[in-house]
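fwd from M.: "can u put these together and see what the complex looks like"

so here's what she sent:
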Amino acid sequence: MKLLKKLLCNVNKVCVFTYLAGVIWFILLSHPQFHARCYFSENALSPGLVHSQFASSNNEIARFNRYFTGDTEKTQQTMISLLQSIGLEVHQQKFAFREDFINQPEEFQLKNGTNIYGFMRAPRSAGTESVVINIPLFHSQPNYAVGIALALAKQMRGEMHWAKDIVFLFTEHGSYGAQAWLDAYHGTPSFHIAADPLTSHAGSIQAAIVMEMKDKSFTYINLKLEGYNGQLPNMDLSNLAVRLFKLHEILASVNYQFHPYDPSTMDGFKSFLKTTLKMMKQLSTGMSSGNHGDFLRYNIEAITLEGIRSKQHPNRDLLALHRILEGICRSLNNLLERFHQSFFFYLLPSTERYISIGMYMPCLGLVLLAPLLKALSMLVRSEITDSDVTEEQSDDQKENIDDILQDVGSKYFEETVQTPTTQWNSVVQMMILCHVAGYLLFRSPSFTPVWSSMFSLTFTTSFIFLLVTVHLAALVFMELHSQHFFSFTQEGAKNFRVASLLHAAIAVGVISIMNFSLGFIVSLFLVPVVTFIQTREGWLKYLQKLSLIIISLPLIHFYTHHAYEVVQIYNFHLTNRSWLFPAASLVYFPMWLQLWGITCCSKHVEIAN
Amino acid sequence: MQKNMLGLFVLIYFAMFCTCNGNENYEESLKLDMIDPELVYGFFNFTTTWNYEHWFAPRHYKLFPRSLGQLIQKYNIAELHFTMTQGLWRYKRWGFPDASSPTGAQLWVWFHKNTEDVDKNWVGFTNALSGLFCASLNFINKAVTVTPKISFRPVGVVEGGETDNTFLRYGTLSRENLCTENLTPWMKLLPCGSKAGPGALLNPSQLHHSKFLSIGLHFLHDCSEGGSCERRHVKLEQHISVVYDLRTLNLMPNFSLLSLFKKRVKPACPLSSRSVLMVRVIEGATISPALTESVGGFSVLNLHRLKSDSNVQVKGLKTPGVTTKLNHGVTNHCYLTGIGLEGGFVCSIVNHNNREIPIIFFQVVPWFLHTQVHTLKVVSRQNDIISPAWISYTPGKIRESPNIMELIVRLPSDSITELSFHFTKGFMTWIEHPPDANHGFYISPAVITTKTNDLNISKELHGSVQHIYSEAILVNIPVPDFSMPYNVICLVCTVLAISFGSFHNLATRRFHKLSPNEVSPVKKKFLSLIERFKSRTKKNEDDSLASTAEKSS
């Protein structure tokens, strides 16, 4: 009780402390003392244990690549005949898709694409398991990984030791092609893609490697791990790639950041922090950084290897990457079970080190402790003040204990059952109103065609216009509602605040369980505002409103404008890939609107008093 | 001394040969067939037949392997079919094999009609056979064993002419690999082992360098020559099917027996009545030395006439075109759909013939996949719903028996028919998981049974029925995390639950200060009860006191 009292007296200080502790903890995680070296959990992988066969040469890769410089239709035919001559079982799949739901009305013609896939049937197995090597074909430029894949296919076809079918998958139109193929493979059609069924399968896919190579040579390889909605591949897979790169003396990076030269220095710490933050930034958008994201959605562990060329540094030829790819496939071939051992939730401060979920989750817990404690203190304090009042009364009338007991009992009864002052009903009503506004924001894009014809705007402009309008309308409504139609009593306003605090803590907590990076970043700027917003008067009130405007959705989008267009976010939501749009409109916006409501009702509290 | 001993052995040997020749017969053959310029299919066949008077109950064994004969006698077996296979026979490109077999181990047995307890005999036999072949056939337990209704009929002759499928047991183990340790006991059953004839080519390390390898053992009762079937004999067929990929072996385009098997073919087993090597090559390829005899497209080499170890070479085409051999029959490709707990099973069955073909579709689904029969759909690619002519479905019992599905479907001419159903993945208790549970669990291959007449293929072996096996399917069911993170999750959840409890208490309780004199209502009630009790006893005491006082007074 004493501890509780102390806590209640200093709750604001404690809140500031936990918030800062959470943030500092998070920053410290990037210090080498606080994160660990990557290690293999799955011993079956044993990377680099086998010697690469050196069956191909640079010339061969270049020769294969020479075929794929012309137009698409012709190259696809060449591809099929090449794969067949290598001895693969080749199939193709046609698909049509819709990518833009704002600028393309229903009757808009779908875009067409073709996937080509060849099975290297493993001599050692019966087609029950497979590994996919995905080469996305770009329309604007060649993907030189094609040559590597074909050379590898040719080499593998002549080898005896393969125990998993290797699927060489050449997809078109970025992730749409991969999704079309995966949808058809698993028989789970998406509404925006019409894909032909596949004519052959290769059992359960254990892992996938995506290769992007925009130049004929490369300086270093960038590993892309981030999938949709914070999904990450098993750490053993990325670790496997990194180990092999190290073995073959190839520079590897995560988010274009290298392992620092000296990790113990300040520069090393900065580099770790920067890499972690870059990774979190990508994860928080809920978008995938490559085709591997589509595989991850089907519970297939996948990474993208992207070759980067820089003019200042010496370059490696494609044969080096060929060896890496062969090594990865050999290791995956050894795999007896699905990836299940290592981490699925982690952050990478560099290619060689990791922060596990057990380390980063507590800092979010500390940050979210602030609103929880605040809410708790407000609840408990009200109780204690109540009892204080009764105590005073009882002091006055000490004579008759029975009388006092009766008196307290009736008071208690009045307060709990009738309680006209707590206004819980109105609090719930208010919260429902906020969520209705959120739902309206969520549904508003479907009125885009109507708006564009009404105001003769382009679809994109009217879409953004619509979102902003709903935003402003909800704001104005909240303002008017609290000024003219409804007012909270002091008790009611307090309860509303408690409810908002709890709501914010729970909502952010739930988001962070699905996507830690998004949850943590939201909590970073939401928690200070949500904890210290009160029903205030004077300049403080306007300061509060200003802080709320700073963290409003349009402005957040403005800060991160270069990341993704709002239209793109909406499209990705419709294709069921990213939950960012629903999270923003259905969770964040109502939360924000409640806070706005708290700042609004201050004036009337005075009147009520 | 040694010479004398050797002479004695030779004498005994020939004596045996002469006595057994009367009612036992042994034939051996190897068929080499080029499926296309890249693939060579080898089929070894070793057949022992034994005429017997009434009942197969021999006391003395000559050519027939004793170890197997004793098992057959003990467990009262009428017919036995056992195959172990590595790899998948790809019907679409390779055509039909001489003996079909599914991936992994397959065993089906017809017991004699006088068998008292079929299940007991079955369990005993699977265990004995697993000992004989060093295979895990003892894992064919009751959760795997089924009794198909119409798919697996006896191949040979049945006593009484009628068949009652209660005497049939069928089991498959798709995870079972074929290893050298299975191959060695299998070869020991041959009269000449791997010492002579085609058997000399059986080199385990080279056999495993193939795309497909299958060993088979079939025991059945058959009619001797003459239509009336008055005299019967037992027949033991042992075969090995092997498919070599010349590209993988780096043998394109020329190959020989030596390069494929790393052994030369030896003269025939002296115990055999027929011992031949048959070779068929694709157009343009040549065999050397040239084989003059030819039977049904195959060039034949009689191994009885062979004097010494020899090699047969085939010179292929230097620049083979891409040829895809199209199967003019029925092919089946099965795969899994769905993600998460819901799953689907789809088989696309292709009929390449230009006429309707009736087939029997047979599928066993393990008990931990709960099939939903109402989702069973048979649709041709033209989206015409085909209603099966006959359906038999036996729902599985958890931990006891699998789901069994058997249907007769008429495949339209030149059609692709999709047969599909859904299932939900069930859970296993934690001790039921096999080692490497994250590897997944196998659904045994779907079996399609057709008449060979319908497929236009001629078969020497196993009569008029062709089984077509699809691929075994690996399915991942939810597996508990047996590792450290699982403990961490448990621990964290416990801590959360405890902290939640105290926070909940704090948040929902009302605190109000009690005056020091005030007692809690419960305590008050309790106290008042004690008070009342006390007062009553006091009263009683007073009364008794009063009464005693009265008495005394």
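replying to her w this: Chain A touches chain B through 49 residues (CB under 8 Å).
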